[in-house]
Amino acid sequence: MAKSTLFVVAVAMAMMFEGCASSPAGAPSSRPQGAVGTPCGGSHDWPPNGYAAAPVGLTVEIVSGTTVRVRNDTDQPWVARVAAWEDLPCTGYMTATDSPGRDLAPHDTFGATVEDPGWGGQLRIGVEFWDHPCDDACTDAPAGFAYVDPVPLSDASATFCPGRTWPPYPLGGIPGITAKSTDRATIMIENQSGRTYYYRVSGWQLDQFETCRALGEVEVQRGPIHAEATEWVKLQGDWEHMDVPITIAFWDEPCGEACQREPIAAMQVERSTFEPASS
After folding, report:
1. What is the reported pTM?
2. Residues 46 and 126 reside in one and the same domain
């Protein structure tokens, strides 16, 4: 075949695949990690890669926007990796994440916020679960997969629960007890009242209830604080965000997880803008 003919064939093949093999507008320079398949032949099936559903007891729920809460109600530890997935015309479902998984202890939860890669496809938030450590170089198939669709923040106000106010109980401190945020992720509680109280530190985020959305309380830490004692509370994950309200509720007697009694006092902690010290 003449060289000129070969050149024409090559140009024609390049034009055939133009736009499919190239990166989406606004995509990172590196090719994102995708579902099984070649460019212009990727899979649009969901869940991606033929992933099996997450084992019973492992769940993910939307908090607001692209913020999710991952929960482990099983008796064993897991590793969970949260990522944004987009369905693109040629490649199918793709994810740009290279982040390692996070440890998820038995009966524990963590929050995570993903960023939209901005490729213009349908966005979904997926969580891969492993029953063994899986770092950023790990290529093992996950034991299961769970996902949610993001909720536009504009939708929250349209379905906000009528009659629900925040805070749900009056704010007002206890003489002798002080609390302050020493940095964005640390709260110090001091008790100079002369007696023991029982406290609960909580974060508040937009949550989905049966028929509407409202700020929901998620416990961060609880326990007794004895006279002349100081308690330190570390905020992790999404609780570090400055827009998450943090409250401390107090009782004069123990009030466990099933306790429905209103606190005798509560306070909101003004967050420090200082970054946490690196460990």
Report:
1. 0.47
2. yes
